[in-house]
Design goal:
Layout lengths: L6 E2 L13 E2 L2 E2 L32 E5 L6 E5 L23 E5 L3 H4 L3 E5 L30 E10 L7 H6 L11 E4 L10 E2 L6 E7 L1 E8 L5 E10 L5 E3 L2 E4 L4 E10 L4 E4 L3 E3 L2 E3 L11 E2 L9 E3 L2 E3 L18 E3 L7 H8 L33 E4 L2 E2 L4 E3 L4 E7 L2 E3 L3 E3 L4 E6 L2 E4 L14 E7 L7 E6 L8 E9 L1 E5 L15 E5 L3 H4 L2 H4 L11
Parallel strand pairs: 2-6, 8-16, 17-20, 17-36, 18-21, 19-22, 21-23, 24-27, 25-28, 26-29, 27-30, 28-31, 30-32, 31-33, 32-34, 33-35, 34-36
Antiparallel strand pairs: 1-3, 4-5, 6-7, 8-11, 9-10, 9-12, 12-15, 13-14, 13-16
Length: 535
């Protein structure tokens, strides 16, 4: 018989017709008193345990029932369960003990049964001083091993992008923040792998009575539109917190995971050209079509992604999105020597020393569009010393070429567009910033900035900043041409505009190969690998 709870050892058992002393052990509910169903050392007097098939030694056992504390005599049983892990250890043999017992600890194999076996101990028999050596018995034990288990609760919730802290994630009630249909499971390295469970609303799924040990949760949101933010854990027994997808479940404890997601997150996309980064590239792609970091250009092909350290296009913490690079997934892991392209081109164009001060450069805070200053074969670039801001919309027409060097920072205060075979290039020894008011609607692919834009410095501090999304009419940045910088600051966010971040990239960079043909010869004759974006 078997009960779950505390344990009591019954040490004196004797058969009816052939008196034998038997060492026995059985589990007992905590609330039960020690069993006292025998009245004397010679008892029991009213139970007969005949021999059974496969078990010729059946002993009477004094113990309570599985669900009550009422004590009674019963016989050990033969179950046919041969799985040794389904049984407790044998109670042990010693001098004067002729039989030993063991009880079932796996109901699926042997129910609530107990088994007995003869010890064969005698002064001249096997195991005795004058007999053969008996096989060694299992070491005696007073208590069975207690299963080391606990419970784990997991849920995914939608968090406000403005506050993604663990405190905010844990505070979301089960009546809101629903990520309905999220699936939760554990990695193969975890202490056990219970079957995956699907979440309903913002309620927790519970993995009950799982093996204690280290666990790593593997959540899957219902669609790629959900962007993982962070995982927050709580030990409900002692109230300790941590931020991780992994944590140890102590025996008897309840461990809880609250996993925060945003419905989409700002992302960037390129079209048709190569993308190079000496470091990491990250852009979490939602469930758009095509779901690719670099989409095909006008020629029907994407570009090649070259990265220095890593890339990540899927917010799943265990997936990098190797199949989301492009339709062809062209990618190269390498780095190139750093080049100060401002200095490089400055020297190629004759290293001008006299700043341009005539109109429209006489007011660097509001520079309107200048006239063309280059042909295909010759070029006298404009040279600005100090910070410069463009004013109004610039439109470079057919056969016009404009090249401007800025030894300082450049702010693009209005649109810069190209028509026909026009050409414009800004080569900046500093930062290029796009004004927040320069943009287009969330779903538009019309470029607001066109041309070649270079921002590099000797200290590798040059950057291109795309601005912020402040109004629906100018929320999205679309640039067409080639963009080179020491770094990119991408701060556009379509949350609250159009279909939000689940519909379109906040920044779209489109490669324009025509610029390779229309640029001045001084730029064509350089061993420059032109890229459209380097996030």
């Amino acid at each position: 018989m078997r009960c779950i709870g505390g344990f009591i050892v019954i040490a004196l058992l004797i058969a009816l017709f052939t008196p034998r002393i038997v060492q026995a052990q059985y589990p007992s509910p905590t609330a039960c008193e020690p069993v006292t169903c025998y009245s004397q050392v010679g008892g029991p007097e009213t139970i007969d345990c005949p021999a059974q098939t496969g078990n010729p030694y059946s002993f009477p056992v004094c113990n309570h029932g599985p669900t009550t504390c009422t004590a009674k005599w019963s016989c050990t049983q033969f179950t046919g369960c041969t799985d040794n892990t389904a049984w407790s250890q044998w109670s042990g043999c010693a001098e004067g003990i002729e039989g030993e017992t063991r009880y079932c600890i796996n109901e699926a194999c042997c129910g609530n049964a107990a088994e007995a076996r003869i010890c064969n101990w005698s002064p001249t028999g096997p195991g005795g001083p004058g007999g053969a050596t008996a096989p060694p018995a299992d070491p005696p034990t007073n208590t069975p091993s207690v299963p080391q288990i606990g419970d784990i609760q997991v849920r995914a919730v939608q968090v406000d992008p403005a506050n993604t802290s663990c405190a905010a994630i844990r505070a979301i009630p089960t009546t809101s923040g629903q990520v309905n249909g999220a699936t939760h499971q554990f990695t193969l390295s975890s202490a056990s792998q219970p079957a995956a469970q699907a979440q309903v609303g913002a309620n927790y799924v519970t993995f009950s009575s799982v093996t204690a040990g280290s666990y790593t949760v593997d959540p899957s949101p219902p669609t790629a539109d959900w962007a993982y933010v962070r995982a927050c854990t709580t030990n409900l027994d002692n109230g300790t917190y941590s931020e991780s997808l992994s944590r140890t479940l102590p025996a008897g404890a309840i461990l809880r995971w609250d996993i925060g997601y945003t419905l989409g997150t700002a992302w960037v996309q390129a079209q048709g050209g190569d993308v190079y980064s000496s470091g990491a590239i990250r852009s979490y792609l939602p469930a758009v079509t095509p779901r690719a970091f670099i989409t095909d250009g006008t020629g029907g092909y994407p570009g090649v992604m070259t990265y220095g350290t890593s890339y990540d296009f899927d917010s799943d913490p265990y997936v990098a999105g190797a199949d989301l690079v492009s339709a062809d997934n062209w990618q190269v892991n390498t780095t190139r020597a750093s080049v100060n392209y401002y200095d490089y081109f400055y020297r190629r164009f004759g290293a001008p020393t006299t700043p341009t001060t005539e109109a429209p450069f006489n007011n660097l805070l509001a520079v309107t569009q200048p006239v063309s200053n280059c042909t295909e074969s010759t070029c006298s670039p404009y040279y600005v010393v100090g910070d410069m801001t463009t004013s109004g919309t610039w439109s470079v027409g057919a056969n016009e070429r404009v090249v401007i060097f800025v030894d300082g920072n450049l702010t693009l205060g209005g649109r810069v567009n190209i028509t026909s075979n026009g050409f414009i290039a800004f080569i900046v020894n500093g930062t290029i910033t796009v004004a927040d008011t320069v943009g287009t609607t969330a779903s538009s692919t019309t470029p607001v900035i066109e041309g070649i834009y270079i921002a590099t410095t000797a200290g590798q501090a040059g950057s291109i900043n795309t601005g912020n999304s402040l109004a629906a009419a100018t929320a999205r940045f679309v640039g067409q041409g080639m963009f080179i910088a020491n770094g990119f600051l991408l701060q556009r966010d379509l949350e609250g505009f159009g279909t939000g971040n689940t519909g379109n990239a906040a920044e779209l960079f489109i490669y324009n190969p025509q610029l390779l043909l229309t640029m001045p010869d001084a730029m064509k004759e350089l061993s420059v690998t032109w890229q459209e974006v380097s996030p």
